[in-house]
Amino acid sequence: MRRLALILLAITALVVAGCSSGDSVQVVPTPDGERRTAPEFTLPDLRGGPDISLAGLRGKPVLLNFWATWCGPCIEETPAIARFATANPDIAVLGVASMDRPDDSLKFVTDKGAAYPHAVDRSGKLLGEYGSTGLPTTVLIDPRGKVITTVFGPVGDDELAGIAKTLRAG
Prior knowledge:
36% helix, 7 strands, five-stranded mixed sheet, Glutaredoxin
């Protein structure tokens, strides 16, 4: 029954979000006083290290990216996010392999050179807690742990340049 529920969730995510196409996305920050606190989490590290928690990233701006190996736009955006993580060491970048098999996810990040940290959320529950059902989804979180905005769909180098400015502005 649980496996059926996961399959239905994955299919719903694909249908609703269409595993979002490559259309340009807008980054519109929520005004500071209206930001909600990002849902806290602790998830297993994809590479087998210590569990990863949002609380452990407090004090830095965070780019939280939900992805899966079966999502074409996720595959396309990963190299840009890897370049972003390398070029912006002052910003914490965290990938979350959502509704994916950890073995597939690990091979994927290794093959793509995505050296930034990745956590595992096999159920996709955390994605829902962040208000999304589709992949890729990128959440920008300020150093206080408040959600600046959520980007639905893939991000490329141009969007990521704007995202860096938005995260640094808090």
